[in-house]
Model the fold of this input.
Amino acid sequence: MAYGEHGAIVHYCADEATNAFLEPHGLLLSDTGGHYLEGTTDITRTFVLGALTNEEKRAFTLVLAGHLNLLDACFPEGVCGHTLDYTAREPLWKHGLDFNHGTGHGVGFLLNVHEGPQRISRRAVDDAPFYAGMITSDEPGFYADGKFGVRHESLLLCVKSEIEGFLRFEPLTFVPFDRDGVDKKYLTARQIELFNAYQRACFEKLSPFLDEGEKKWLGEVTEPI
Done:
């Protein structure tokens, strides 16, 4: 968990010297995961705690746009991760922004959360082609030193596309995005469609396990934008 300026430290870990109190404004970055018999998870969400600056809201939305672009990718069999990296960075690049870490990594099962051979990064060295069945993270971000950080991370399953010889991704993890951070002027119609479809899937998959009060809350936070 990293609040405010600590969110700009990619691998921040709270301690007694740096602990910060949460305030009713700004962004809280939560990077979580666990090992289960059904699989290993690695999920990051950035939560809105109150009023945001225009800079925070723009960054939140541009990172989300890149995340959705990668989720929507369709590509030939044998393509390597560095070829896909641009899809997630392009919305940020258009505004002169970037992030200094990989866009995605392979995920192990009860082993190492970061497990190859595949990855999504600007680096082409030791890259590996994608095949159906591979599980990869989708985690673009943006980090404003001394101010805030944004990262949206889900896990994707690589599957065969309906187009022969091509692959695509399907989401494996379903945690709603905080719609309060979204500024629709930075999203395309397709990205809005993808966002609403993902939020709807979160409700459909999670609501059967919730009581009525929890379902009401989940319905509110997954409403379309």
Remarks:
- Residues 54-71 form the longest helix (18 residues).
